[in-house]
Design a protein that fits this description.
Helix content: 10-25%
Number of domains: 1
Structural class: alpha+beta
Number of strands: 5
Oligomer: single chain
Largest sheet: 3 strands, antiparallel
Order of helices and strands: EEEEEH
Amino acid sequence: MKKCPYCFETIDDHPSKCPHCEQFLIDEPIEVDYSGIDKKKCFFCGKKVLKEAKVCRFCHKWLDQVDHGASDFDQI
């Protein structure tokens, strides 16, 4: 099963753009044997996305920037 490296949703073959998060696939799709079920809330829109996601499939904002910003804030 191939997953988008950004939103971690299932994709077919190797499209140039993910149909879920609409990010251009610069990185290779991820090959996994399982489908993720753990979810987290998007900090921006509040909808549930897969825990592994770096991009929200609904509002298309980068979630890993929030994670990095939060860890930087903790160090102050």
